[in-house]
């Protein structure tokens, strides 16, 4: 049985790099992306590197695409072992709370919270059969003076609590799925307009931290695991501790 992973939002950024690194280790990659053209372009890049990969249409704003993907994967890839909930949107990162538009906050919550909630619910039955894992890409709960986008932080704080609650529920119900959040630290991507300073990590480094957790043999049930590559100064700046 092959190792198979579904990664949402994997046509670019850290999601694409996680797909590449796992693919180079022999994993079968199900590359989730909402846009067909960009999804297939990413598939072609990985296939050129020898990765076994296919595009799966998933749009976190369209819950029916999540259900359709689960139905297909249950039939074609019942061996699915890992779901990486990487897809998300930043919302307006430059406004103060009182200046945030309700529509922007709602749009951010719809993707980063409701979309991921639906993915967790829908794919748990498949992963349960394989004693699988769900990894939610996230950020620390505490904002800081360097990075404090209101809508984005609100949505990720909700995601962190949701991860914790699912973990408690899985444990009490003896559901053999390990769900946890991963904080890779500040990673330079288009989500943050390619922010680049001494506290930021490369996409390769950030993805490498996630891959190590995917492959480890430890249970992280309900936790939010911080992996900054040992950069204590970065941890202090980002978390405020």
TrEMBL record:
Protein keywords: NADP, Oxidoreductase
Signal peptide per UniProt: none
One MF annotation (Gene Ontology) recorded for this entry: oxidoreductase activity
Database matches in InterPro entries: NAD(P)-bd_dom_sf, SDR_fam
SUPFAM superfamilies associated with the record: NAD(P)-binding Rossmann-fold domains
Family under the similarity heading: Belongs to the short-chain dehydrogenases/reductases (SDR) family.
Alphabetical list of PANTHER family matching this protein: CARBONYL REDUCTASE 1-RELATED, CHAIN DEHYDROGENASE FAMILY PROTEIN, PUTATIVE (AFU_ORTHOLOGUE AFUA_3G15350)-RELATED
Name under which the protein is recorded: Carbonyl reductase
Species of the source: Secundilactobacillus pentosiphilus
Gene name for this UniProt entry: cbr_3
């Amino acid at each position: 049985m092959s190792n198979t992973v579904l990664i949402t939002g994997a046509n670019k950024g850290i999601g694409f790099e996680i797909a590449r690194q796992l693919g180079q280790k022999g994993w079968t990659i199900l590359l989730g992306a909402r846009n067909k053209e960009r999804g297939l372009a990413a598939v072609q890049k990985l296939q050129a590197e020898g990765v076994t990969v296919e595009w799966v249409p998933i749009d976190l704003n369209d819950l029916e695409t999540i259900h359709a993907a689960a139905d297909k994967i249950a039939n074609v890839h019942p061996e699915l072992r890992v779901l990486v909930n990487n897809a998300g949107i930043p919302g307006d990162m430059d406004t103060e709370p009182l200046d945030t538009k309700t529509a922007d906050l709602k749009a951010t919550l719809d993707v980063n919270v409701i979309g991921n909630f639906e993915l967790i619910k829908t794919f748990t039955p498949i992963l349960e059969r394989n004693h699988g894992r769900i990894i939610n890409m996230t950020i620390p709960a505490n904002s800081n003076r360097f990075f404090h986008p209101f809508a984005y932080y609100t949505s990720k704080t909700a995601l962190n609590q949701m991860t914790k609650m699912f973990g408690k529920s899985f444990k009490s119900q003896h559901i053999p799925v390990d769900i946890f959040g991963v904080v890779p630290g500040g990673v330079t991507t288009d989500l943050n307009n390619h922010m680049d300073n001494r506290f930021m990590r490369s996409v390769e480094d950030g993805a490498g931290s996630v891959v190590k957790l995917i492959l480890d043999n430890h249970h992280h049930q309900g936790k939010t695991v911080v992996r900054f590559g040992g950069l204590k100064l970065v941890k202090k700046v980002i978390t405020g501790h």
